[in-house]
Design goal:
Blueprint (H helix, E strand, L loop, with lengths): L9 E7 L2 E7 L9 E12 L2 E10 L3 E5 L10 E10 L10 E2 L3 E2 L2 E4 L2 E5 L4 E8 L13 E11 L11 E3 L3 E5 L9 E9 L9 E10 L4 H4 L6 E6 L7 E3 L3 E3 L5 E3 L4 E7 L6 E8 L8 E8 L1
Length: about 300
Protein backbone atom coordinates (compact mmCIF):
# COMPACT_ATOMS: atom_id res chain seq x y z
CA UNK A 1 0.00 0.00 0.00
CA UNK A 2 1.28 3.45 -0.88
CA UNK A 3 0.01 4.81 2.45
CA UNK A 4 2.54 2.69 4.34
CA UNK A 5 5.65 3.94 2.51
CA UNK A 6 8.41 5.39 4.67
CA UNK A 7 10.18 7.84 2.37
CA UNK A 8 12.08 9.73 5.14
CA UNK A 9 13.30 12.72 3.08
CA UNK A 10 16.56 14.35 4.21
CA UNK A 11 18.21 17.55 2.93
CA UNK A 12 21.97 17.83 2.48
CA UNK A 13 24.17 20.42 0.75
CA UNK A 14 26.47 19.73 -2.20
CA UNK A 15 28.80 21.57 -4.52
CA UNK A 16 28.01 20.85 -8.19
CA UNK A 17 30.34 22.43 -10.80
CA UNK A 18 31.36 25.09 -8.28
CA UNK A 19 27.79 26.05 -7.35
CA UNK A 20 25.88 25.34 -4.14
CA UNK A 21 22.89 22.99 -4.39
CA UNK A 22 20.59 21.44 -1.80
CA UNK A 23 19.73 17.79 -2.34
CA UNK A 24 16.58 16.08 -1.07
CA UNK A 25 17.16 12.32 -0.74
CA UNK A 26 14.46 9.80 0.16
CA UNK A 27 14.13 6.03 0.50
CA UNK A 28 13.05 4.08 -2.55
CA UNK A 29 10.75 1.25 -1.42
CA UNK A 30 11.91 -2.24 -2.38
CA UNK A 31 8.74 -3.01 -4.28
CA UNK A 32 8.20 -3.99 -7.87
CA UNK A 33 5.98 -0.98 -8.42
CA UNK A 34 7.25 1.63 -10.83
CA UNK A 35 6.99 4.76 -8.68
CA UNK A 36 7.28 8.43 -9.47
CA UNK A 37 7.86 11.13 -6.88
CA UNK A 38 6.61 14.66 -6.50
CA UNK A 39 9.14 16.78 -4.57
CA UNK A 40 7.96 20.18 -3.36
CA UNK A 41 10.66 22.56 -2.09
CA UNK A 42 9.55 25.26 0.37
CA UNK A 43 11.29 27.90 2.45
CA UNK A 44 10.30 29.56 5.70
CA UNK A 45 9.12 33.04 4.70
CA UNK A 46 7.86 34.28 8.08
CA UNK A 47 7.70 32.39 11.40
CA UNK A 48 5.20 29.56 10.95
CA UNK A 49 4.63 30.19 7.21
CA UNK A 50 6.30 28.55 4.22
CA UNK A 51 6.28 29.40 0.53
CA UNK A 52 6.83 27.06 -2.40
CA UNK A 53 9.92 27.68 -4.50
CA UNK A 54 10.17 24.58 -6.72
CA UNK A 55 8.17 21.47 -7.65
CA UNK A 56 9.71 18.41 -9.34
CA UNK A 57 8.21 15.18 -10.67
CA UNK A 58 10.92 12.54 -11.01
CA UNK A 59 11.68 8.83 -11.19
CA UNK A 60 14.88 9.39 -9.18
CA UNK A 61 15.18 9.01 -5.41
CA UNK A 62 16.58 12.55 -5.10
CA UNK A 63 15.92 16.11 -6.20
CA UNK A 64 18.19 19.18 -6.43
CA UNK A 65 17.59 22.89 -5.99
CA UNK A 66 20.22 25.59 -6.55
CA UNK A 67 21.02 28.24 -3.97
CA UNK A 68 21.13 31.06 -6.50
CA UNK A 69 20.86 33.99 -4.07
CA UNK A 70 17.50 35.05 -5.57
CA UNK A 71 14.60 32.75 -4.66
CA UNK A 72 16.80 30.69 -2.33
CA UNK A 73 19.36 32.58 -0.26
CA UNK A 74 21.73 32.02 2.62
CA UNK A 75 19.84 32.40 5.87
CA UNK A 76 16.80 30.49 4.56
CA UNK A 77 15.37 27.45 6.32
CA UNK A 78 14.36 24.96 3.62
CA UNK A 79 12.04 21.92 3.57
CA UNK A 80 11.29 19.25 0.98
CA UNK A 81 8.02 17.32 0.93
CA UNK A 82 7.86 14.05 -1.03
CA UNK A 83 4.80 12.17 -2.32
CA UNK A 84 4.96 8.88 -4.30
CA UNK A 85 2.51 7.55 -6.87
CA UNK A 86 2.43 4.78 -9.45
CA UNK A 87 2.68 5.69 -13.11
CA UNK A 88 -0.40 3.74 -14.10
CA UNK A 89 -2.61 5.09 -11.28
CA UNK A 90 -1.37 8.65 -10.53
CA UNK A 91 -4.48 9.42 -8.47
CA UNK A 92 -3.34 6.93 -5.83
CA UNK A 93 -0.70 8.77 -3.84
CA UNK A 94 1.24 8.10 -0.70
CA UNK A 95 0.94 10.40 2.29
CA UNK A 96 3.24 13.42 1.83
CA UNK A 97 6.34 13.31 4.03
CA UNK A 98 8.25 16.46 4.99
CA UNK A 99 11.94 16.68 5.83
CA UNK A 100 13.33 18.46 8.84
CA UNK A 101 14.12 22.12 8.24
CA UNK A 102 17.60 22.69 6.81
CA UNK A 103 19.16 26.03 7.78
CA UNK A 104 21.44 27.14 4.95
CA UNK A 105 24.16 29.50 6.19
CA UNK A 106 26.40 30.27 9.15
CA UNK A 107 25.49 28.76 12.51
CA UNK A 108 26.93 29.51 15.93
CA UNK A 109 27.17 26.81 18.55
CA UNK A 110 25.93 27.45 21.12
CA UNK A 111 23.36 29.88 19.64
CA UNK A 112 23.52 32.05 22.79
CA UNK A 113 25.91 32.25 25.73
CA UNK A 114 25.48 32.91 29.43
CA UNK A 115 28.83 33.63 31.06
CA UNK A 116 30.11 35.22 34.26
CA UNK A 117 32.84 37.74 35.12
CA UNK A 118 35.16 34.97 36.28
CA UNK A 119 37.87 35.06 33.60
CA UNK A 120 36.89 31.71 32.09
CA UNK A 121 37.13 31.20 28.33
CA UNK A 122 34.08 29.90 26.50
CA UNK A 123 34.42 28.29 23.07
CA UNK A 124 32.11 29.56 20.33
CA UNK A 125 32.06 27.37 17.22
CA UNK A 126 31.23 29.00 13.88
CA UNK A 127 30.21 26.64 11.09
CA UNK A 128 28.79 26.78 7.59
CA UNK A 129 26.04 24.29 6.72
CA UNK A 130 26.70 24.79 2.99
CA UNK A 131 29.93 24.08 1.09
CA UNK A 132 32.20 26.98 0.21
CA UNK A 133 33.05 27.41 -3.45
CA UNK A 134 36.51 28.47 -4.60
CA UNK A 135 36.47 32.00 -5.93
CA UNK A 136 37.34 32.24 -9.60
CA UNK A 137 40.25 34.67 -9.21
CA UNK A 138 42.17 32.63 -6.60
CA UNK A 139 42.64 29.14 -5.24
CA UNK A 140 41.25 30.03 -1.82
CA UNK A 141 38.20 28.01 -0.80
CA UNK A 142 37.31 29.96 2.30
CA UNK A 143 35.00 32.59 3.76
CA UNK A 144 36.58 35.27 5.95
CA UNK A 145 34.31 36.56 8.71
CA UNK A 146 34.91 39.87 10.48
CA UNK A 147 33.84 39.55 14.14
CA UNK A 148 32.69 42.45 16.28
CA UNK A 149 30.96 42.92 19.63
CA UNK A 150 28.35 45.40 20.74
CA UNK A 151 27.05 46.12 24.23
CA UNK A 152 23.28 46.45 24.43
CA UNK A 153 21.32 48.48 26.95
CA UNK A 154 20.36 52.06 27.64
CA UNK A 155 23.69 53.24 29.03
CA UNK A 156 26.03 50.83 27.28
CA UNK A 157 28.23 53.69 26.06
CA UNK A 158 28.55 55.14 29.56
CA UNK A 159 29.41 51.96 31.42
CA UNK A 160 33.10 51.88 30.61
CA UNK A 161 34.85 48.82 29.18
CA UNK A 162 33.12 46.37 26.84
CA UNK A 163 31.31 43.40 28.38
CA UNK A 164 33.09 40.70 26.41
CA UNK A 165 36.40 40.05 24.69
CA UNK A 166 37.05 37.74 21.72
CA UNK A 167 40.23 35.79 21.04
CA UNK A 168 40.19 36.88 17.37
CA UNK A 169 38.69 39.66 15.24
CA UNK A 170 38.64 37.56 12.07
CA UNK A 171 38.16 33.87 11.36
CA UNK A 172 38.51 31.87 8.15
CA UNK A 173 36.03 29.12 7.34
CA UNK A 174 38.04 26.72 5.17
CA UNK A 175 36.20 24.28 2.96
CA UNK A 176 36.03 20.73 4.29
CA UNK A 177 33.99 17.64 3.37
CA UNK A 178 30.41 18.11 4.59
CA UNK A 179 29.48 15.96 7.58
CA UNK A 180 26.83 16.35 10.27
CA UNK A 181 25.55 19.52 8.56
CA UNK A 182 28.95 21.20 8.77
CA UNK A 183 30.94 22.00 5.62
CA UNK A 184 33.47 24.37 7.27
CA UNK A 185 34.13 25.34 10.88
CA UNK A 186 36.26 27.58 13.08
CA UNK A 187 36.30 28.47 16.76
CA UNK A 188 36.90 31.56 18.90
CA UNK A 189 36.90 32.00 22.66
CA UNK A 190 34.67 34.49 24.45
CA UNK A 191 35.57 35.91 27.86
CA UNK A 192 33.59 38.24 30.06
CA UNK A 193 35.54 41.40 30.93
CA UNK A 194 35.99 41.63 34.69
CA UNK A 195 35.26 45.30 35.42
CA UNK A 196 35.13 45.23 39.26
CA UNK A 197 31.91 47.25 39.04
CA UNK A 198 28.56 46.23 40.43
CA UNK A 199 26.65 47.06 37.26
CA UNK A 200 24.21 44.14 37.11
CA UNK A 201 23.80 41.54 34.39
CA UNK A 202 24.53 42.95 30.94
CA UNK A 203 23.79 41.80 27.41
CA UNK A 204 26.09 41.95 24.39
CA UNK A 205 25.97 40.54 20.90
CA UNK A 206 28.60 39.11 18.59
CA UNK A 207 28.26 39.89 14.90
CA UNK A 208 29.97 38.11 12.01
CA UNK A 209 30.13 39.63 8.53
CA UNK A 210 31.68 38.06 5.42
CA UNK A 211 34.42 40.32 4.00
CA UNK A 212 36.10 40.53 0.61
CA UNK A 213 33.47 38.41 -1.13
CA UNK A 214 32.62 38.75 -4.81
CA UNK A 215 30.23 35.80 -4.73
CA UNK A 216 26.64 37.11 -4.78
CA UNK A 217 25.52 34.31 -2.46
CA UNK A 218 27.84 35.43 0.37
CA UNK A 219 28.12 39.13 -0.39
CA UNK A 220 24.50 39.89 0.51
CA UNK A 221 24.46 37.71 3.63
CA UNK A 222 24.89 38.63 7.30
CA UNK A 223 24.54 35.75 9.78
CA UNK A 224 22.33 36.06 12.86
CA UNK A 225 23.96 37.70 15.88
CA UNK A 226 24.88 35.73 18.98
CA UNK A 227 23.41 37.01 22.22
CA UNK A 228 25.79 36.92 25.20
CA UNK A 229 24.51 37.52 28.73
CA UNK A 230 27.25 38.48 31.19
CA UNK A 231 26.37 37.69 34.80
CA UNK A 232 27.71 40.26 37.22
CA UNK A 233 29.71 38.84 40.10
CA UNK A 234 29.92 40.76 43.39
CA UNK A 235 33.24 42.53 43.82
CA UNK A 236 35.10 43.20 47.06
CA UNK A 237 36.01 46.70 48.23
CA UNK A 238 38.77 47.97 50.47
CA UNK A 239 39.61 51.59 51.26
CA UNK A 240 42.45 53.83 52.34
CA UNK A 241 41.30 57.44 52.89
CA UNK A 242 42.03 60.74 54.70
CA UNK A 243 44.85 60.39 57.29
CA UNK A 244 44.83 57.11 56.25
CA UNK A 245 41.97 55.15 57.72
CA UNK A 246 41.95 51.68 56.23
CA UNK A 247 38.92 49.41 55.86
CA UNK A 248 39.77 45.90 54.67
CA UNK A 249 37.76 43.65 52.36
CA UNK A 250 36.15 41.94 55.33
CA UNK A 251 35.29 45.21 57.12
CA UNK A 252 38.11 45.57 59.68
CA UNK A 253 39.21 49.15 60.37
CA UNK A 254 42.78 50.36 60.95
CA UNK A 255 44.76 53.60 61.03
CA UNK A 256 48.22 53.99 59.56
CA UNK A 257 49.93 57.32 60.32
CA UNK A 258 53.35 56.22 59.08
CA UNK A 259 55.28 57.77 56.19
CA UNK A 260 56.59 55.50 53.43
CA UNK A 261 55.50 52.96 50.82
CA UNK A 262 53.25 50.15 51.97
CA UNK A 263 51.67 47.01 50.55
CA UNK A 264 47.93 47.70 50.80
CA UNK A 265 46.72 44.31 49.51
CA UNK A 266 47.95 41.27 47.64
CA UNK A 267 46.03 38.31 46.23
CA UNK A 268 47.26 34.84 47.15
CA UNK A 269 45.62 33.28 44.06
CA UNK A 270 46.41 35.63 41.13
CA UNK A 271 48.76 38.43 40.07
CA UNK A 272 46.98 41.28 41.85
CA UNK A 273 48.77 43.71 44.16
CA UNK A 274 48.30 47.32 45.32
CA UNK A 275 50.97 49.56 46.91
CA UNK A 276 50.30 52.95 48.49
CA UNK A 277 52.71 55.78 49.28
CA UNK A 278 52.04 58.10 52.22
CA UNK A 279 53.66 61.40 53.17
CA UNK A 280 53.49 63.79 56.11
CA UNK A 281 50.54 66.15 55.83
CA UNK A 282 49.93 67.05 59.49
CA UNK A 283 52.59 69.70 60.03
CA UNK A 284 54.10 70.34 63.52
CA UNK A 285 50.89 69.93 65.55
CA UNK A 286 50.07 66.25 64.82
CA UNK A 287 51.65 63.24 63.22
CA UNK A 288 49.35 62.68 60.25
CA UNK A 289 50.06 60.99 56.94
CA UNK A 290 48.07 61.18 53.67
CA UNK A 291 47.99 59.04 50.52
CA UNK A 292 50.08 60.60 47.81
CA UNK A 293 50.51 57.74 45.36
CA UNK A 294 49.22 54.35 44.35
CA UNK A 295 50.57 51.54 42.17
CA UNK A 296 48.49 48.56 41.14
CA UNK A 297 49.21 45.33 39.29
Amino acid sequence: KLTSLALKPVITAELVHGRVYLKCTYSRPSSKLLLQYVVVWTRLSTPGKTEQIQRDTTLQSFSYIEMNGVNLKLGDTVFCTVTAFTTDTPEQQSLPEESKGFYAGIKFLPESLQIAEDGKEHVLTILSTVPIACSGHSDSCKITLQLSTEDLGKNSQLLGPPNIALSACQVDLLRAPCSERSCAAAAVTVTAVTDFAQDGNRISRIRAEPVGQRDLLWRAYTPKDVKVTVRDLPTGNCYSFTDPHIITFDGWRYDNYKIGTFLLCRSVSRAFEVHVRQWDCGGHRSATACNCGVAAR
